[in-house]
Write a structure and sequence with these properties.
This protein is of the alpha+beta class. The protein is 26% helix and 22% strand. This is DUF4846 domain-containing protein.
């Protein structure tokens, strides 16, 4: 079968180009595309919280989803969560193939970085390295590279300037390789649980850390709030929304520092780990 394609050179070249394009796309094109906002209406009596048009929260509401009933796949394209898994509400149409480094916090950072890139805010892309050094996309694009010396990272000029998307991918890969979940716990300021908003994330402290993302929120007239919460995992897998109960993805929020979020996962996530990306 392969020899037939290779012998037909125009067809073979077209298929090869298509494979390369798909491999480099971050989001999988699915027709018709259904977004978080379109698929998940708030519970009766609740309305989505107002958010700024160009905010991370507004961008997350437009996050494209795979058709209903899709399994969660890992970076090797193996099934990570089977179709019908009661803990999965939806799977983001996000290409994880070959992205071994994009685990729990990494995939949240990826979403944040893609938002900034696609919304024309490339100059403010920055994330912490493990000892707190600010690792900026503009530094990388200018040819600066992180080098660990003593107890800290230093940036030194060792490459030519390159502001392409391919260079952006390299920047993120180096970030994911060097940094980790705990950098965001220790070097991002605490957010009071009562101030939680869409786009915030919760980090678990410790060696077996984890992170989940507050994708969307809604409130009723009495001030009760609910949220859509999503995560990646280890090994690296597609980003997916969690179910609070079977058929119900909206989690009731009772933000108290000592109280765990009611998530259907083994790791306990506490509000004291609530963090926010700069500028939100």
């Amino acid at each position: 079968m392969l020899s037939r394609f290779i012998s037909n050179k125009p067809l073979f070249i077209l298929l090869l180009m298509l494979h390369v394009l798909i491999a480099r796309n971050v989001f999988i094109t699915v027709e018709p595309v259904e977004t978080v906002e379109q698929r998940f209406a708030p519970p009766p009596g609740f309305k989505r919280l107002p958010v700024a048009d160009n905010s991370f929260a507004a961008w997350l509401r437009k996050l494209p989803l795979l058709p209903q009933g899709q399994p969660v796949r890992d970076y090797r394209n193996r099934i990570f969560k089977k179709t019908g898994d009661s803990t999965v509400a939806a799977v983001a149409a996000y290409n994880i193939r070959g992205r071994k480094l994009e685990q729990c916090m990494d995939i949240i950072v990826r979403l944040r970085a893609e938002y900034l890139w696609r919304s024309g805010q490339k100059a403010v892309i920055r994330f912490p390295l493990p000892e707190g050094t600010d690792f900026r996309w503009t530094d990388w694009a200018g040819g600066l590279r992180p080098v660990f010396r003593g107890a800290h990272f230093q940036l030194q000029k060792s490459a030519g300037a390159d502001s392409s998307y391919a260079a952006f991918e390299q920047y993120l890969n180096v970030l994911f390789e060097y940094s980790g979940t705990q950098a965001f716990y220790h070097y991002y300021p605490d957010i009071e649980p009562r101030r939680v908003q869409p786009g915030d994330f919760v980090v678990k402290k410790g060696k077996k850390g984890h992170a989940v993302l507050i994708v969307d929120m809604a409130a009723d007239s009495a001030g009760n709030t609910v949220a859509l919460i999503g995560q990646g995992d280890t090994p690296a897998c597609q980003f997916y929304l969690l179910n609070y109960q079977t058929g119900n993805p909206w989690f009731p929020l009772e933000p108290a520092e000592q109280k765990a979020l009611p998530l259907p996962i083994k790791k306990k996530m506490y509000w004291k780990g609530l963090r926010r990306f700069p500028g939100e």
